[in-house]
Design a protein that fits this description.
Two copies of one chain form a homodimer. The first copy, chain A, has 326 residues and is of the alpha+beta class. Chain A contains eight helices and 14 strands. Chain A has two domains: 177 residues, Ribosomal Protein S5, domain 2 (2-Layer Sandwich), CATH 3.30.230.10; 136 residues, GHMP kinase, C-terminal domain (Alpha-Beta Plaits, 2-Layer Sandwich), CATH 3.30.70.890. The longest helix of chain A is centred in the middle third of the chain and has 20 residues. Chains A, B: This is diphosphomevalonate decarboxylase.
Chain lengths: 326, 326
Amino acid sequence: MNTTVTAKAHTNIALVKYWGKKDPQLMLPQNGSISLTLDHFYTETSVTFDDQLAHDQIYFNDQLLQPAKAQRISQFLDLIRQRSGQTHFARVTTGNHVPTSAGLASSASGFAALAAAGSRAAGMHLDLTDLSRLARRGSGSATRSIFGGFVEWHAGHDDQSSYAEVLQDPVDWDVQMIAVVLKATKKPISSTDGMARVVATSPYYPAWVQTANHDLDRMRHAIAAKDLHALGMIAETNAMRMHALNLSADPAFNYFTADTLTAIQAVTDLRANGVNCYYTLDAGPNVKIICAGHDTAVIKAALAKHFAPEQLIVAKPGPGITITEA
Amino acid sequence: MNTTVTAKAHTNIALVKYWGKKDPQLMLPQNGSISLTLDHFYTETSVTFDDQLAHDQIYFNDQLLQPAKAQRISQFLDLIRQRSGQTHFARVTTGNHVPTSAGLASSASGFAALAAAGSRAAGMHLDLTDLSRLARRGSGSATRSIFGGFVEWHAGHDDQSSYAEVLQDPVDWDVQMIAVVLKATKKPISSTDGMARVVATSPYYPAWVQTANHDLDRMRHAIAAKDLHALGMIAETNAMRMHALNLSADPAFNYFTADTLTAIQAVTDLRANGVNCYYTLDAGPNVKIICAGHDTAVIKAALAKHFAPEQLIVAKPGPGITITEA
């Protein structure tokens, strides 16, 4: 009989961004990053290794993935097979539990859940730190989604030294995010290709690595002090410096849409009116607003001028990974 | 009898941007810049020094300016009085000849015309190089508007060494710009304040100065070789690296509007379809498209999907300053 293992992992949003690989094979980043795991967006993945299978079968939201789309997942399963000695192919059923198809969960929660369910189903019993190292090989940001609350991913210099750990969990103060889910447009470039182009062509890249390391120090202090204003200002500046790298690449690219500019301006205006809120952005048009829970109503009201209620999703700090065997 | 001197100066659009002062008093830039003077946008300014006046009288587009708005012009006239020994106040009538109030002419043509008309009316006979140095004190970009065609402003290290000169005039090949004049919104920050914030807070600024100097070398070669593709690619990358500085400032700011992103995307799409066109942007939402005259129709047709015909203004290379005495 084959054991089925199910893992649930939440997505995370970086407050000090990961943007650029030092080693694409080992997925070592150029700089460390700090994130907040969110409660609202997660991936649930079940894995069963089965000697009756002639190849991996990957079901995503109940649809069997074609081989081309399943390839990245199969390669990750190869890594698990290689380490565990497991020789069979696997049946994987995975689903993203997000209110929309906005891609907010994506690869961070996906590869965290796959690392946890896949390794356990293959007979390995990894601790959370080793799970974090393993998830990293699937997707950089997945390194952080093993843990809940505020998490830091140490850049490291080899497989062993590049892993995430908890900075603060549970998060026992009033901080949250409001995801502004914007109309998806054709992505100008994938995050993998975007960051590779930036590392190769931006004259600003060395200064980015320096400033990100400085931001990590300051962000750790802001989190320890539960200082929303400091946390928000560091996150906002760091995010814009990441997007500045994209503008400075050759050729230039950017992930902004008209709605992105509108949401940024709304946050800036709110803050000018005394509301403690800050924005961050990743490799896509969506804006995430960092704020206190008690300001939710006033922020939603201001954004309602531009966006529909279903585009505004409140997310509280979320938990680390859970694993169950059936 | 008092001499009235009239000068006409055209605006210019930088292909390698000026963004940041080394010396705000002397208006010395951190890096040199290269521009194209345009035929379509100009300022005409007449100056008369008159012993009957109790203060400077500045008429802008036939309206007497209030003292607060006239101050920057009066301070420039003070500089001329100090150098020339002229003791009287002046009557200045100035007008921007641009198809819209989009601010495309603005301070570059304005201070170039004022430097030329004012200094001659005060009895000075400056050569073009000295006029360029004088115009610099009014507005950095005015340094270049003394000359026609392709112009380089040498950054220099003192008043004497910071001046512009012609790289190529007349421009005897098929290069032009199409100005995409977008809805004006409230400017987030003036260019003077914006560049000061960038110099003070952007971790990318030292790399900008290096890359701009490298771009100057490459741009000189592209102009000498009459190579539109090379010229356009250097200009586009340089412009986006200037705007990247703004995103990387603390606090971040940007001059993009939704229409800016639309125009940039239209140029990118056109080029992907084989049309030789490139964009550049200054401290505002407008996009200027660098292209050959023979592609005007196809570019206008593509942009007509998003913008009205009167928003698309074709500008050919323009002449240097002209001065007439009456």
